[in-house]
Specification:
- The protein is of the alpha+beta class.
- It contains nine helices and 26 strands.
- It has three domains: 155 residues, no CATH class; 58 residues, Alpha-Beta Plaits; 246 residues, Trypsin-like serine proteases (Thrombin, subunit H).
- Helix 4 packs antiparallel against helix 5.
- About 7% of the residues have low confidence.
């Protein structure tokens, strides 16, 4: 311990540690003990003498060699070798392994009792079971737990008719159908909660009469999150506000720069002084842009005041994606911070999710919105088909604390890896699904899907910023 202390701060005698080590102590687990590699065989002999599990004891062995072979846990004791320079990373890894051992035990108990799947007679029970497996799988994928210590989680594939996608398209054309999502071999059909909902249900049942699809009805209403106040609006003194999602770079053939005090002018992208690899634009929800208005200025509000930052030059009414980009005034570009925030508020540049690391059910996400900062949530599903495209659904992470509120439309849904070394911008908040029963559910537009549609429509590439505008 003296060596560890000396490697990070000024050397000092750790008197309290010495006294602690000489006394019999009751230690709360998980706990970590750091020892010199020379004592490895003493530790090994002690572990072999145990006759019961010690849940969550971690032993960190220090060696001068950089090589750190894997040591399998024995009797609940986790061991790892490291050097002084890698102390804290190695300690983090060990404690993570100990915590995930608890999760592994719980999942295995669940599997031993229920198996990989139920008989599907109770849809709610089956849905809960699969959520446990999916959430556990997502947690392990985010972790750095060695493969040897991961449970074999079941991956259940439910059968759907070959024409299921065509069936969904047909359902979305029925008036009053808000969205459709595949769930446990069934098709969840969200019906707008109005006086005509029974008419819509009859229409859905009639349409599915000769289809081999089992439908489950959910009553709800998709409501945009806009309310009184100001964060993003078109007025200097505003009564309604929404949220600025963030910034992106576009790569068009020609780029138009707007200055509040001069006429618009088009320049080849090669002559653009700021961001020679792209043009900075801001991202907001389409339904927010519609409220602000075409060719109107967009105002932003911070703790200093309210000021115009750009202008909406196009609103793609025929494009099924609730994301709009608008141009930043040239004299405001240097005032734009293109970073996002981690859950704890640290600023960091974001990146889009890749096809190798897709968005998963159970992912812990958050927003920093105009009304909620931060809002904590959990990905519920990633496949809600609607007339306006594919949406992601999100639940509140903590009971009694809303993931987002009115005014958060346009906020970016983000996630980080387990060590908060990488930030992922996943989706943009569209609204809340007002259901007649069940958990609060929010919907967001996948940023990947949104960028693809914008790129095809505008013949320009969209990407997140990787550095500050200059």
């Amino acid at each position: 311990m003296d060596k560890i202390k000396a490697s990070h701060t000024k050397p000092e005698q750790l008197r309290h540690v010495t006294i602690f080590s000489r006394q019999k102590q009751n230690i709360s687990f998980p706990a970590l003990v750091a020892v010199d590699m020379k004592q490895y065989f003493q530790i090994k002999n002690w572990i072999s003498s145990l006759n019961k599990e010690i849940a969550g004891l971690c032993v960190l062995l220090f060696d001068e060699k950089p090589d750190t072979p894997y040591i399998a846990p024995a009797w609940g004791v986790f061991q790892s070798m490291t050097t002084l320079s890698d102390t804290f990373v190695a300690a983090d890894d060990l404690l993570e392994r100990a915590i995930f051992a608890v999760l592994k035990n719980l999942v295995q108990k669940c599997f031993n009792k229920y198996g990989p799947s139920t008989d599907l007679s109770d849809i709610e029970k089956e849905s809960t079971l699969q959520s446990i497996y999916n959430y556990a799988s997502t947690a392990y994928k985010r972790s750095e737990v060695p493969e040897q210590e991961r449970p074999a989680l079941p991956e259940i594939s439910y059968m759907y008719p070959k024409d299921i996608d065509e069936v969904v398209k047909g359902l979305l054309e029925i008036k009053g159908v808000v969205g459709c999502s595949k769930n446990i071999g069934h098709l969840e059909v969200i019906i707008e909660n109005t006086q005509d909902s029974s008419v819509t249900m009859n229409g859905v049942n009639l349409y599915l009469q000769n289809k081999k699809v089992k439908a489950m009805f959910i009553h709800g209403t998709l409501a945009p999150l806009i309310s009184s106040g100001d964060k993003v609006s078109n007025e200097q003194i505003t009564k309604r506000f929404a949220t600025l999602g963030g910034f992106a770079l576009t790569f068009p053939k020609t780029i138009t720069i707007y200055n509040r005090n001069s006429a618009a002018k088009s320049l080849p992208s090669s002559t653009l002084s700021q961001h020679t690899t792209g043009k900075l634009v801001a991202l907001i929800s389409q339904h927010v842009a519609n409220r602000i208005g075409l060719f109107e200025s967009v105002c932003a509000c911070d703790n200093i005041g309210t000021f115009e930052i750009g202008r909406i030059n196009d609103i793609h009414e025929d494009l099924p994606v609730d994301i709009v980009h608008f141009d930043i005034y040239e004299d405001r570009i240097n005032q734009c911070d293109s970073r996002f925030k981690t859950e704890i508020g640290m600023q960091m540049f974001g990146q889009e999710c890749s096809s190798e690391e897709p968005i998963r059910e159970g992912e812990l996400v958050y927003i920093w919105g105009a009304a909620t900062s931060p809002g904590l949530g959990t990905i519920a599903a990633v496949d809600l088909e609607t007339p306006n495209g594919l949406l992601i659904t999100i639940h509140d992470r903590n009971e009694g604390k809303s993931f987002c509120e009115a005014g958060d439309s346009g906020a970016m849904v983000c996630a980080t890896d387990s060590r908060e070394r990488t930030l992922y911008a996943i989706a943009m908040i569209q609204g809340k699904l007002l259901r007649s029963s069940g958990r609060a559910t929010y919907v967001a537009v996948s940023l990947n899907e949104g960028f693809k549609k914008l790129e095809a429509h505008y013949l320009s590439k969209f990407s997140l910023c990787k550095d500050q505008p200059t």
